[in-house]
Amino acid sequence: MIDTMHKKSLIFIIFSLLITLLLPSCRNMETTLDYSNPDNWAYYAIGGDEPVDLFIICPTVDMGEEGNTNMEMDDEETKEAFVGALNMERGIYEDVSLMYAPFYRQMTFPLYAERKAETGMPLEIAYSDVEDAFLYYIKELNDGRPFILAGFSQGTQLALMLMEEHFDDERINEKLVAAYLIGWKITDEDLRKYPHLKMAEAYDDTGVIISFNTEDAGITDSIIVPKGTKTISINPLNWKRDGTVADKTLNLGACFTDYSGSVSNEIPALTGAYIDEGRGTLKATDITPEDYSNSLFPDGVYHLYDYQFFFRNLEENVGTRTAAYLESKR
Predict the structure, then answer these.
(1) Model-level pTM greater than 0.85?
(2) What pLDDT is attached to residue 327?
(3) Where do runs of H (alpha helix) occur along the chain?
(4) Per residue in 246-295, pLDDT tens?
(5) DSSP secondary structure letter of residue 210
(6) Checking CA distances to 226, which of 17, 53, 82, 186 falls within 20 to 30 Å?
(7) Dihedral (CA of 131, 134, 139, 145) sign
(8) 8-26: burial string, b at 16+ Cβ within 10 Å, e else
(9) DSSP tag of 70
């Protein structure tokens, strides 16, 4: 009798703990953000008479130091970092675009470090916000204008999900200048499952995805591109999809930016690059891992520098693809 009562008590305690852990996520999922409120946007129509729009999704900035799995919308300090991270990339896009970027309840970094960021409630919460913001943008803000879709890291993961679910709608897809989905993997399986996704083949094709992940030649595994996975890339220096080595002289300028968006250091011809035909990743040729060491990724995983190493080439390319798209519509 005592054993039975003990077992029932233990089951009740475990059940109660599970409910306690699950309730915050359930409440978060039931909550939606009102994207008709400009306060829920990090960028809201920033710019002037630029010819296209930009819808850009922020990378991971919440380190989950409080044990949270999703960013809280009342966390003003993290929201400042959120805007700062966007500012680090905006110089690539701002000359041609009117910029929009939603705040969203992004997943926190530990989920990536523990390789738990590709399924589950935290992902559903983050994606539901981004999807709501994008559909609001299309319906209420776009006004028929061409647009660039952009992301980095988690932002790219969520942007890819958007494209998978919504860009088979020709009314949306026909307005896409290009999608700069950098710092996340895209595989042949993705393309087979979603045939409306088209990868860039050259420097000026439009309606396509530009993607790459930068690393040292010795890297065979990362939390972005796990060992055994082959991603699809295009080289931002020579705009080729094969293993042709692009010399560092093709690098128009690596730009190391800060949270204000200012370029604190610019280095032309910092590194060349080639695509690893086994992993599909972009291998940097002229730098050493120790020079770009950081606390989040192993030496040689240059994830934090994907945009910065090739900043001026990407900036030029955004202008090229925008001009090509606008010319095609005349």
Answers:
(1) yes
(2) 98
(3) 2-30, 76-90, 109-113, 121-136, 154-166, 170-173, 188-193, 306-309, 311-328
(4) 999 999 999 999 999 999 999 999 999 999 999 999 999 999 999 999 99
(5) E
(6) 82
(7) negative
(8) eeeeeeeeeeeeeeeeebe
(9) B
